[in-house]
Design brief:
Layout lengths: L8 H16 L4 H8 L3 H8 L7 H10 L5 H9 L18 H12 L2 E6 L10 H9 L7 H14 L1 H4 L6 E6 H4 L6 H15 L4 E6 L13 E5 L7 E6 L2 E5 L2 H17 L3 H13 L3
Parallel strand pairs: 1-2, 2-3
Antiparallel strand pairs: 1-4, 4-5, 5-6
Helix pairs in contact: 2-3, 4-5, 7-8, 11-13
Length: 284
């Protein structure tokens, strides 16, 4: 099968998981190639995401690697079925690869969790709020670049609006609600939008109040994307120096614990809505 110069996030993740299974079994890439009747380069390309691989080949490799976790094997096999490029590929020449990966992860995720401290989650921003936020980024974007990123951000929001919306649990620190980005013209509609989104059945929106005191973690925006099995979860972090995606078992456990802790500090849904309504009155 021909190589792909820009393998998708799912293909890279599939390859990485197959490599983990091979290494746990104590099998070298050369030995794996012999088992499949191929060569070491082919195994390396599959594991790097440069070559596609069929569902049957995934199952065969899993048998060779003595993997008995059938749910994981079938989840990996299901990752081979994509034949069409996602909408995010339209932005391949304009945006960082990790940002496109996030859109792909969100699209295929079975559930999403998020936490923010001084910003609002991308998936819950109005167009005007998102434009203001992007215009204040560092390094500064040109107006055309801002509009391109704005278009991308709004298209990502389809995952919470589509017919089979991805369940979304998000905690926002109260500090983010007081930023007033763009003044009342922008902040008021944004607060009303948050309230409306909190009433959707597939969204759980809760606020961590100032009264909770300090909170754990570094405060950077966190997006946790659940896969069809826990081993395929991914953490997406927004950091000052760029974007990072984590998927090791230890780090996934750490971020699940962190999100659980943040949720334990948050108001319940009803109290969150009352807080949003009180803040909306200040921007009337």
């Amino acid at each position: 099968m021909a190589t792909n110069s820009t393998p998708t996030a799912r293909r890279r993740r599939l390859g990485a998981e197959l490599r983990k299974l091979r290494e746990r079994a104590g099998i070298t890439a050369t030995e794996a190639a012999v088992l499949l009747g191929g060569n070491q380069a082919r195994i390396s390309n599959i594991e790097a995401g440069r070559y596609g691989v069929s569902a049957d080949r995934v199952r065969a490799l899993s048998r060779h690697y003595a993997c008995t976790d059938r749910r994981l094997v079938e989840a990996l096999a299901a990752m081979t079925g994509e034949r069409r490029s996602g909408w995010w590929e339209e932005y391949r020449d304009d945006l960082p690869g990790n940002l496109l990966d996030l859109a792909e992860l969100e699209h295929h995720g079975t559930a999403l969790r998020a936490a923010t401290t001084c910003t609002l989650p991308d998936l819950l921003q109005t167009v005007d709020h998102a434009r203001e936020a992007l215009a204040r980024g560092v390094p500064e974007l040109s107006p055309p670049e801002t509009e391109r990123r704005l278009s991308f951000r709004i298209r990502r929001q389809d995952v919470v609006f589509r017919t089979e919306a991805v369940p979304y649990r998000v905690v926002i620190h109260e500090a983010a609600l007081h930023m007033g980005l763009g003044g009342s013209r922008v902040a008021g509609p944004q607060l009303r939008h948050l309230l409306a989104m909190s009433e959707r059945e597939t969204i759980s929106l809760r606020v961590i109040p100032f009264a909770s005191g300090g909170q754990p973690g570094a405060g950077q925006p966190i997006t946790y994307v659940q896969g069809s099995v826990a081993q395929l979860d991914t953490v997406h972090l927004e950091q000052a120096h760029g974007l990072a995606q984590l998927d090791t078992d230890a780090l996934l456990r750490t971020y699940r614990q962190l999100l659980n802790r943040l949720e334990s500090l948050a108001l319940d849904v009803r109290a969150t809505r009352e807080l949003l309504r009180s803040l909306m009155a200040t921007h009337a």
